[in-house]
Design goal:
The structure holds 2 protein chains of 2 kinds. Chain A is about 70% helix and about 5% strand. A two-stranded antiparallel sheet of chain A has the order 1-2. Chain A has a two-stranded antiparallel sheet with strand order 3-4. In chain A, a hairpin with a 2-residue loop joins strand 3 and strand 4. Chain B has 14 helices and 6 strands. In chain B, helix 2 runs antiparallel to helix 10, helix 8 crosses helix 10 and helix 11 packs parallel to helix 13. The chains are: A mainly alpha, B mainly alpha.
Chain lengths: ~300, ~350
C-alpha cells in the first residue's frame, strides 16, 4: 500500500537524510581530495575511517578520554596515518598504471580490515554519541538532536577545510600541487609532501565520518563498507573532481535514499513497484553510480575530461 | 598454422605432465586434502577467467565474486528440491548437478556480456568502482529476491537427489570415489580443460586483440580492432569462467547463500591473479593455491580471523611495489639468471 503523505514524517525523513547524507558527503569529499591531488580513487577510504573510529573507541573506553578529547586526538592520529600511508605505499607507485594503484588500495583495505579484526576482534561494539538521543519539536516535525549534531560537525569540518584551502599559504600550495605539479615544483612547492598532506586531510575527514556514523550503525570492521559505496555514489553524482559536488551529492543522496525508502511504493500501470526495502538501499546507490557514469560521467559539477592522444 | 614450435611442444609436454600429477595425486593424499585441492581447482578456473579480463584485456574487475554468485545460484536453483517454477512448469529435480555447470556458464556469460555493454563506456578507475559496488551490493540483492534465492538462509544442496554422491559416493568407470575425491576429479578435469581452452583462445587472433586493447585502446582501434566486440567478448568469456567456478563452488560447499560470495572473495581472486602474474596463465596455479591455503597457513601466525586478510594485503602491496609480474614474472627473471650461472663465461 502506498504510504499516505504526512508532513511531519516527510520532514523527519528529510532531516535524518541530511544527517546521513552529511556523513556520505564527508567521506565523498575525502575521496575527491585524494582524487584531485593524486589521481587515485582510494578504495581504502572507508577502511581508514573504520580504523580511525576504532582508535577513538579505544581512547574513549580503554584510556578514559572524554569524547571530544578522543575525537581530536583521533583526528591528529588519522592525519599522521594518512600521510604515512601515502609516503609508504602510494608515493612509490605514483604514475603507475591504474590497475597497480587500484590493487594497492585494495591491499590497504585488506590490511586495515584484518588489522582491526586482529586488534579489536570482529565483535560489534557500541560507540557512544556526544549528542543526546532526544528530539525537539520544530513546527510539528520531530528532529533528533543527534542528526542536528552530526550535520553541525560535518559542516564545521568542511568549513574549516575550506578556510584552510582558501586562506592559508599551505592550502594554496596544496591546490597548486594538485593543479600543476611541474610548475609548482619550479616555484619551490614540495609537491611530494603536498600530496601526502592531501592524504592526511582526507584521512581526517574520513575519521569524522566514521566517528559520526558509529553511534547509529555500531562499530565493527565492516561498518564503513556500505557507507563507502554511498560516498562513491555521492562523489560520482557530484563529479569526482568537485568538492562542492561531493557535498551536494552526499546530501541529496542521503535525502533521496530516505525518501525512496519511505514513499517509493507505487503502481506503475499494473506493475506494483516497491523500492522501500532496506536491502535495496545499496543497489539503488549502485544504480545511481552506473547511471551517472553512463549518462554524464563528469557528474553534476565536474568538468568533462578531454584526453589528448 | 605452420609446424608447432619447440615452445609449443614443451608447453604441451609440461601440460601433460601436470595432468598426470593431478590425476595420480589423490592416491597419495587423504580425502580431506583432496577436498582442499578441489577448491584449488575451482579457484584456478575463476582466476583464469579473471586474468582473461584483467590481465589480458586490461579491464579491472573487483566484482568477479558476483559472477561466481550467478553461476552458483544457477546451479543451486536448478537442482534444489523446491525447483524453479516458471509459469507453472517446475524445472529441476530430475537435473543432475554436473549438467547445470554448462548452464551456469551460459547464464553467467550472458550476465557478463550484458554488464560489458555499459562497461564499454567506463575506463580504468570507474570500471573498478562500478564492479566494486556490484560486489558489495550483490548479497543485498540476493537477500531481497528470496523467492528465487532462499533469502538469507540460501539453498541447501546436501543430500538432495541432484547433487552427485554427497551421501553415498560415486561410481566412475568402475571405481568407487567418495564425495571429496569425486569433487577433486570433477573440478580439476574442468579446470584443465578450461586452461587449455584459454590457452588456445589467447594465443591466436583473439588473444592478440585482447592484448592490443590492454596496451593501448587508441592504437588498437586505429589498427582495426573493434573495442566494443573484444571488450564485451572478454567480459562474457571471463564471466562464463567465473560462472563455472561458482557452480562448482556451490556443489563443493553443498549450499549457497549470500555470504558464500562476499566482497572479500572478489578481492582474494584479484590477489590470486596478481600473485600468479597478470597476463600469464602459468603462474595461476600458485595464485589458486594461495587463495585456498593462505587463510589456513596464516592461522599458524595468529588464530585471529583478521590474520589472513593482513597477510593477503601485505603480499598484495609488496608484489605491486616490488614484483609487478607476479610468480610468472619472477620465473621469467630468474631463468636467464640461472642460465648465466650454469654456462661458464668464455
Amino acid at each position: 500500500m502506498p504510504v499516505a503523505f504526512v508532513f511531519s514524517e516527510f520532514g523527519q525523513q528529510v532531516v535524518s537524510g541530511l544527517a546521513s547524507g552529511s556523513v556520505y558527503a564527508a567521506l565523498a569529499l575525502a575521496l575527491v581530495i585524494i582524487h584531485r591531488s593524486t589521481g587515485v580513487i582510494n578504495f581504502a577510504q572507508g577502511e581508514m575511517a573504520m580504523f580511525a573510529t576504532y582508535i577513538a573507541w579505544t581512547l574513549d573506553v580503554n584510556h578514559g578520554f572524554p569524547f571530544w578529547g578522543a575525537f581530536f586526538a583521533t583526528l591528529a592520529i588519522s592525519f599522521v596515518g594518512g600521510v604515512a600511508i601515502q609516503r609508504a605505499v602510494i608515493a612509490p607507485i605514483q604514475g603507475a598504471s591504474v590497475l597497480t594503484i587500484v590493487i594497492v588500495t585494495i591491499g590497504l583495505i585488506l590490511v586495515l580490515n584484518g588489522a582491526a579484526t586482529w586488534l579489536w576482534t570482529g565483535e560489534v561494539r557500541a560507540f557512544h554519541s556526544p549528542f543526546p538521543t532526544r528530539t525537539v519539536d520544530v513546527g510539528g516535525v520531530a528532529i533528533s538532536l543527534q542528526d542536528v549534531g552530526t550535520l553541525a560537525v560535518v559542516v564545521g569540518a568542511v568549513a574549516a577545510l575550506w578556510a584552510f584551502f582558501r586562506f592559508t599559504k599551505l592550502g594554496l600550495a596544496l591546490r597548486a600541487a594538485a593543479v600543476n605539479p611541474d610548475a609548482s615544483r619550479l616555484v619551490g612547492v614540495r609537491v611530494g609532501w603536498m600530496l601526502a598532506l592531501g592524504w592526511g586531510l582526507a584521512a581526517m575527514l574520513g575519521a569524522v565520518a566514521g566517528m559520526l556514523t558509529a553511534p547509529t550503525v555500531f562499530l565493527d570492521p565492516q561498518m564503513m563498507q556500505a557507507i563507502l559505496i554511498y560516498a562513491f555514489a555521492a562523489a560520482v553524482l557530484g563529479g569526482i573532481d568537485s568538492p562542492i559536488g561531493a557535498i551536494v551529492g552526499g546530501l541529496s543522496l542521503g535525502v533521496g535514499l530516505n525518501l525512496i525508502g519511505t514513499y517509493a511504493e507505487i503502481d506503475v500501470w499494473f506493475v506494483h513497484v516497491n523500492l522501500t526495502a532496506a536491502e535495496l538501499r545499496l543497489p539503488i546507490a549502485l544504480f545511481v553510480i552506473l547511471v551517472v557514469l553512463l549518462v554524464r560521467p563528469a557528474g553534476l559539477f565536474g568538468k568533462p575530461v578531454v584526453k589528448k592522444i | 598454422m605452420g609446424r608447432p614450435t619447440s615452445r609449443t611442444v614443451s608447453l604441451g609436454a609440461l601440460f601433460l605432465a601436470g595432468c598426470t600429477v593431478v590425476y595420480v595425486l589423490p592416491a597419495f593424499i587423504s580425502s580431506f586434502r583432496a577436498q582442499q585441492f578441489a577448491y584449488v581447482g575451482i579457484y584456478l578456473i575463476a582466476l583464469i577467467g579473471l586474468n582473461i579480463l584483467t590481465g589480458y584485456t586490461g579491464q579491472i574487475s573487483l566484482g568477479h565474486g558476483a559472477f561466481m554468485a550467478i553461476g552458483g545460484y544457477t546451479t543451486g536453483i536448478l537442482i534444489s528440491d523446491q525447483g524453479l517454477q516458471i509459469a507453472g512448469h517446475t524445472f529441476s529435480n530430475d537435473l543432475k548437478d554436473v549438467w547445470t555447470i554448462p548452464i551456469a556458464a551460459v547464464v553467467a556469460g550472458a550476465a557478463g556480456f550484458l554488464f560489458g555493454l555499459p562497461a564499454l563506456r567506463l575506463s580504468g578507475l570507474y570500471l573498478a568502482l562500478a564492479t566494486f559496488a556490484i560486489a558489495v551490493s550483490a548479497p543485498a540483492v540476493l537477500k531481497k529476491f528470496e523467492t528465487f534465492t532462499g533469502g538469507g538462509t540460501g539453498i541447501n544442496l546436501f543430500g538432495i537427489k541432484g547433487l552427485t554422491g554427497s551421501i553415498s559416493g560415486v561410481h566412475v568407470f568402475g571405481h568407487k570415489l567418495d564425495f571429496y575425491d569425486w569433487l577433486y576429479y570433477l573440478s580439476w578435469t574442468i579446470a584443465l580443460v578450461l586452461l587449455a581452452v584459454a590457452w588456445l583462445l589467447l594465443r591466436g587472433r583473439i588473444g592478440r586483440a585482447f592484448r592490443a586493447v590492454r596496451d593501448s585502446e587508441t592504437a588498437a582501434a586505429s589498427s582495426g580492432v573493434s573495442l566494443a566486440t573484444y571488450k564485451t567478448l572478454a567480459f562474457a568469456v571471463s564471466a562464463a569462467y567465473a560462472g563455472v567456478a561458482g557452480a562448482l563452488y556451490a556443489i563443493a560447499n553443498t549450499y549457497v547463500n549470500p555470504d558464500t560470495f562476499p566482497i572479500t572473495l572478489s578481492i582474494f581472486l584479484l590477489v590470486g591473479v596478481v600473485v600468479g602474474g597478470l597476463g600469464t596463465l602459468s603462474g595461476l596455479v600458485v595464485g589458486a593455491v594461495l587463495v585456498q591455503f593462505l587463510p589456513l597457513w596464516s592461522q599458524e601466525v595468529s588464530k585471529s580471523p583478521g590474520a589472513p586478510a593482513v597477510v593477503y594485503g601485505v603480499i598484495l602491496i609488496a608484489i605491486m611495489l616490488a614484483l609487478p609480474g607476479g610468480v610468472a614474472g619472477l620465473l621469467r627473471r630468474v631463468r636467464p639468471l640461472a642460465r648465466r650461472l650454469y654456462t661458464r663465461p668464455r
